[in-house]
Amino acid sequence: MKKILFIGGSLNQTTMMHQISMHLNIRYDCWFTPYFADGLIGALTKKGYTDFTVLGGKFKSDTEKYLKVNRLKVDYKGKKNEYDLILTCSDLIIQKKLKSKKVILVQEGMTDPKNLFYYTSKYLGLPRYLASTSTTGLSNSYDYFCVASDGYKKMFVKNGCDRGKIKVTGIPNFDNCGIYLKNNFSEKNYVLVCTSDIRETYKYENRKKFIINAVRIADGKQIIFKLHPNEKVERALNEIKKYAPGSIVFSEGNTNEMIANCDILITKYSSVVYVGLVLGKKVYSEFNMNKLNSLIPKQNNGKSSFNISRVCEHLINGVPEQIYDYEDSYAIPIPEF
Fold first, then answer.
1. Quick one: residue 292, left, alpha or beta (phi over 0 = left, psi -120 to 50 = alpha)?
2. Interval 97-115: pLDDT, tens
3. 118, part of any domain
4. Per the domain annotation, does 324 fall within a domain?
5. Of 60, 102, 139, 319, which is least packed with CB atoms within 10 Å of its CB?
6. SS3 at position 245
7. Are 255 and 231 in contact (CB under 8 A)?
């Protein structure tokens, strides 16, 4: 059997890879690895200096636990086997393993806003990881790039990606938002504030201003805070208690179901904003709302993982690459952690 390596990262990235593999694991030998790096970054990872990223810390431990719980075959850094195809959700680092292989890049979600690092990376050749996800796709070190929507295709092409390599497949975890409307989350009709891990990744955030603005928007309505999984919980709790007393705080739980039951969603730079927009919520974000509406991931009743598997089959075996859009619902349940 031909072998495929799926590179994970955050739980969002890893569950995406898992869903795609479900359509391929009968005909192909599928293996998984947490995200990894070579060279200097790899050496820094061993010393724990990258634990605030998907290379280590909670991100890596959560991914390792997920792979174990779901009994997926693990080949850390892809050292055990030679692979016919590699899938990854990030090209900010191009591992040596990828350079001589067929590669498919899958968009993981919203990309960060462009900043100085984006332009210095693009025009001066500085490492793309310094600009974070704003430079997604610019490596050109892949055969195909599977993206969330036609709007994102236009954006990536404008950024400099090769139009001929981009496939609008939709992306798992954001292609069937309607399923979250049926849930067991007890709270309803509140203002949901989804925080970020901006400070944990050594960028600046005025959290006091963000919380006070959320209180202003809520205007007396119950506020629920859903903390980012990578966030320092105790610090966040103290800030919320001080500036938004009476708020309910969750550090765990299904964020999408919380969005489904809210009236208003407040966030900064997070892919969850798309769930709110699809479900018709009043949304506040640091991004321009008109732009966000033009980028909303394709809603195809959960077919994105299947569509991406078709791109894989075309690349690895030469089968037709048509991305099917059945009228009936073809939904793969999102794996639970």
1. alpha
2. 898 899 999 999 999 888 8
3. yes
4. no
5. 319
6. coil
7. no
